[in-house]
Amino acid sequence: MSGTATLERPQQKSPQNSNHFDVLIVGAGISGIGSAYHLKDQCPDKSFVILEMKDTFGGTWETHKYPAVRSDSDLYTFGYRFKPWVGTPVASAQAILTYMKEVIEENDLGRHIRYGHRITRCAWNSKHNLWTIEATRKSDGANVTFTANFLWMCQGYYDHEHPYIPDWPGREKYKGQFIHAQLWDPKTNYAGKRILVIGSGATAATVIPAFCEKAAHVTMLQRSPTYFYCAENKNELADRLRQIGIDEPTIHRVVRAQIMFDQDAMTKRCLEEPDAVFEELKTLIRHFSGKPDFAFEPHFTPKYRPWQQRLAFCPEGDIFRCAAEGKLSVYTDELESFTEKGVRTASGDEIEADMIVATTGFNLLMMGGITFEVDGTPVDWHDTVTYRGMMFTGVPNMVWVMGYFRASWTLRVDMLGDFVCRLLTHMQKKGVRKIEVALRPEDREMKIGPWMEPDNFNPNYLMRAQHLMPKAGDKRDWQHTQDYWRERDELPNIDLNGPEFRYS
Ligand SMILES: Cc1cc2nc3c(=O)[nH]c(=O)nc-3n(C[C@H](O)[C@H](O)[C@H](O)COP(=O)(O)OP(=O)(O)OC[C@H]3O[C@@H](n4cnc5c(N)ncnc54)[C@H](O)[C@@H]3O)c2cc1C
C-alpha cells in the first residue's frame, strides 16, 4: 500500500484550485495557527488547508469584544514556544491578535487559510481512507466539498455564536439594556449608567474595572464567590534579562520555564494546602486593594478549592480597588427573576440597573457543531473513549486540540503539534494510511466514566455538557489529565507502535 507520500501536493501547485489535502485543519484560532506552523515546520511535504468559518483569524480573541478584554494567563506561556512574547505578561485581545498576525505573516500561513467556510459535516470512508468535509461558503452560500487524509480539529470547545444565558424568569419584563458579554458590541455606550454584572468569573473580573471608570455605579451579582489572584502585570525576571541585554528567544525560554515551575508548585500547593494558599491570595488582595481590613466574608470566600476552576487573574488587584473605593457593590445571592427595573434576588432584594451584562459563560460545543460519520454511521461522541484527550475510539485519522485549563491552553498546542507531526511521519514511513486508537486487552476491565471527574475540574459549562463529551477511562492514557507537567514528559515518549494504535 502506498503511504501519504503519493498524494497530490496542492499547496505547492495552486492551493486555491484543489480541494484535496493531506491534512485539513479546522479553525484559525490560536490552536489552528499553531498547528499549521508545526505541520509546515516538521512535515514540509504535507499539503494542508485551514478552514475557518469567520472572516478572520483569532477565534476567542476575535469573538470577545467587551471592554478591556484580555488574557487571564501570562503570554509567555500562552504564546507559542517558537515565537517570543515581548509585551506585558497579561495581554489585551488586540495584542494577542497582533502576535497571531505576525505568526501568520512570518510563516506564510495566510495562503493556506480559507476564511468564511463553515464546516457542517465530516464523513470518513475506510475504503478510500479519506475524510470528506462539507462546508458552507459564506460569500455565496455554496456547499463546498473537500477531502483530506487527516483531520486536525482546532475548533475550540464552545459555541462562538450562542453564549450561555440561563432561562431567567421575567427577562422580557426588563426595560433596560441586556447584553451577554460574548455578544458585546464595542460601540455600546455605558458611561454614566448603573450597570449590573451577573457572574464573577474571569470575564466579570475584566469588565468590572473597565465599567467602573465610566459608569455611575457597578453591581456584581454572583451565585457563589470566585478565587482571584492579584499581581502586578509584569515579570521581573523578563525585565531584568532584557535590561542586561539577553536576546528575546532566550528570555522567552527562561521565563516560560520560570512560570511553569512556579505554576507547578502552586497547583501542588492548592491540592495539598488550599487554606494556606487562600490566605496568601487574601494577603495580595489586602495589599492591592489598599485596605488592610478588606472584608472577605461573605462575597470573596469560595466554596471550592483554589484551582478546581480557573483562578481569575487581576492585574494590580483592579477589581478589589473598585470594591474598596465604593465603585463596586457585590451581592452573593440567587437571581430569582428579572423585573422592569432590574433583577430580584432570592432574598427579596431588587437590584436596579440601566444595563445588565451577563458574564454567565459559554455553551460547550462538541467539535464545532459538525456532524461526524464513520463509514456511514453517525458518531455519537459520548459513545467514544478518549485517548489522552486528543483521539477517540472508533474515529480514525483525527486529533482534537483541547488545551489546558490550569496551565496555558497553548502549551498543549505545541505539544500536540509535535505529536501529530511525529504520527504523520511514522505513518508515512510505515506506508499506512489509517490510524485508529482502540482499548488494549489490559483495558478490558477499565472503569469508564465522564470526560472529567468533577472533583478534579468542575466549571459549569463542562458540568452542563458532560453527557455530550467523550468518555474517559480510569487510566491516564485514556483521559485528558489536564496535567501539563506529566504530559510534557509522556507525550514525546509515546510508543507509536503500542497496542493502542491500530494501523492499516
Ligand atoms: C474570554 C476568554 C478568555 C480566555 N483566556 C484564556 C487565557 O488567558 N489563557 C488560556 O490558556 N485560555 C484562555 N481561554 C480559553 C481559550 O478559549 C483558549 O485559550 C484558546 O484561545 C482557544 O483557542 P482555539 O484555537 O483552540 O479555539 P477558539 O479560540 O475557540 O478558535 C476556534 C476557531 O475555530 C472556528 N470554528 C469553530 N467551528 C468551526 C466550524 N464548524 N467550521 C469552521 N470553523 C470553525 C472558530 O470560528 C474559531 O475561529 C479563554 C477563553 C475565553 C472565552
Task: Describe the structure in brief.
This protein has 504 residues and is of the alpha/beta class. It contains 12 helices and 25 strands. The chain has helices spanning 30-42, 60-63, 75-78, 93-106, 202-214, 236-243, 248-272, 274-289, 318-324, 409-430, 460-465, 484-490; strands at 20-26, 48-51, 113-114, 117-125, 130-137, 143-153, 177-180, 194-198, 217-222, 228-231, 312-315, 328-332, 335-338, 342-345, 350-352, 355-358, 371-374, 377-378, 386-387, 391-392, 398-400, 435-437, 448-449, 472-473, 501-503.
The CATH topology assignment of the largest domain is FAD/NAD(P)-binding domain
Rounded mean pLDDT score: 93
What is the makeup of the main sheet?
9 strands, mixed
Name of the CATH first level of the largest domain: Alpha Beta
Overall structural class, as computed from helix and strand content, comes to alpha/beta
The small molecules bound here are: flavin-adenine dinucleotide
Low-confidence stretches: 1-16
Beta strands, count: 25
Roughly what percent helix?
25-40%
CATH architecture of the largest domain: 3-Layer(bba) Sandwich
Number of helices: 12
CATH-level-4 superfamily name of the largest domain: FAD/NAD(P)-binding domain
- Integer tally of domains: 2
Please report which band the strand proportion falls in: under 5%, 5-15%, 15-25%, 25-35%, 35-45% or over 45%.
15-25%
Rounded to the nearest angstrom, the distance between the terminal CA atoms is: 9 Å
Radius of gyration: 24 Å
Shape: globular
